[in-house]
Write the structure tokens for this entry.
Amino acid sequence: MGGKGVMMVAILCLWALSATSEAVTEAERGLMMNFYKDTCPQAEDIIREQVKLLYKRHKNTAFSWLRNIFHDCAVESCDASLLLDSTRRELGEKEHDRSFGLRNFRYIEEIKEALERECPGVVSCSDILVLSAREGIEAVGGPYIPLKTGRRDGLKSRTDMLESYLPDHNESISVVLDKFKSIGIDTPGLVALLGSHSVGRTHCVKLVHRLYPEVDPSLNPDHVPHMLHKCPDSIPDPKAVQYVRNDRGTPMVLDNNYYRNILDNKGLLLVDHQLAHDKRTRPIVKKMAKDQAYFFKEFTRAIQILSENNPLTGSKGEIRKQCNLANKNH
């Protein structure tokens, strides 16, 4: 073979190696900012507008977005497994006791439908879940949080793992700290995430053990009559509309008033009380009660860590056609 022929073969080999390398990089790339800039450049704008429209119609959707990211991403992987319906063989995560009170999943489907009209088969339900949480946080006065995208959707629910990952509101603060630490969230991050209790409401089912048969003496006595008025039954009906606002002062605003409330023994849940009085968390609670900028900084960092917990990327998982069903069941 002549010199020119050898040179041509070498060039072709280098081109092939380069093309293969680019293909591998494309397939295996992880999360990144603005992942859909080429494949669906309007994706994040569509999610933002849909969340704004839904929030205008139904104010409590913002609280749902916020709870969704925690209940999905804290359980092994941020992969929208939470959204899957139960099947004949498997109970869905959203049907588990730890998911009590989660709702408004149909609005995730509305966002998905809007995205499918623009870019069919491109945007994952897990990215919708994460970005809708970001927009919901901002809608209730919280900080804007830059978040990476590029997640893919899981193929099955993780109901059997829920109790291993999601702390119960009655567990000790040590257990709660350990469970968050296992996914990379430190003590300031935990304290900040629990600041989401600043908004929304708590069903009486979750707090009557602090009122009946005797009132928990650690509760602020000035707050107890209101709690008893809202929760008049020692065994409330889970389907009844019996709730107590988490923060009576600014119930629709994500702010640091939560920390002042729990220092004043007005926290509804046992974990709120422990957070204010445990020596590991109390100094952080006191700092966040005085400094909302510090609360927002730690909250932003914790949400970013949570949203990047063990995602499926590249060729793993799938892009669901419908968020409540794996494609094999569609």
Residues 3-28 form the longest helix (26 residues).
